[in-house]
User: Fold this.
Amino acid sequence: MRVAFIGLGTMGLPMAQNLIDAGHQLTVHNRTRDKETVLASKGGARRAGSPAQAAADAQVVITNLSDTPDVQSVILGPQGVIEGAAPGTVVVDMSTISPVATRDIAAALAAKHIKMIDAPVSGGSEGARNATLSIMIGGDADDVAGVMPLFEAMGKTLTHVGPIGSGQITKAINQIVIAGTYWGVAEGITLGLKAGLDMDKVLKAIGSGAAGSWGLTNRSGNMIENEYPLGFRVKLHRKDLNIALALARELGVPLPVAALVEQAETGLIGRGHGDEDVSAIARSLREQAGIE
Assistant:
């Protein structure tokens, strides 16, 4: 397929590379323009000077951006996708943004006979590199079926969860569960460290039982060593939790653990840890326990 890919960050760059490797024709655009050269220098992608230019010859436009205002600007703003995309083009937003904003963007595109799918992802930078992402898809069933080969090139678990906006709500649920899981792992690790236990043995004892989880397996080492190499940034997870908490307020659903983790992440960001992996929430508990 002819694909425009806009947003070549930690997630977007390897996702775009996987599409090239699968044989799709890519035109790329990124706000920081030098990131485009990584793909263009290999002869696998063309560069575009704006989102509108990127969308002009594309059958599908994929956006992978940091926050709701970024997506609104890139799709609907001056020189945005809406100004370049032809009727019948499918816009696939793989960012994590507000479901309300997603529906509003879809309505604006529909007025120009442009289709939209929301398809946020989970799996971190590892999943993006290895094409093993979990992709949560909202949109019309026929539109989703038409772009499924693109999803298959980027992910492993592909789930059409409902109409437009449903993918973003599912991603919000995903981030709530991650918050609770990571916080529980961090509490357990902190207690074990304070008690002076051999944490390798502790992890072996609990990892294959009911306490086992992706977070325990893949992020407990960070928490034990107090080192948090990037997988998914604290500041982005805090942004995602704010989306989830806003939706929860609208629906009248209490989310006490998510609110607690959001507060801890706000503190970490204030202390300069916003670009660390989200497992850095363990810093808060280690500090309170007096573990350096």
Remarks:
- The chain has a mean pLDDT of 96.
- Strands lie at 2-6, 25-29, 45-47, 60-63, 90-93, 115-118, 121-122, 133-138, 155-162.
- The first helix runs from residue 12 to 21.
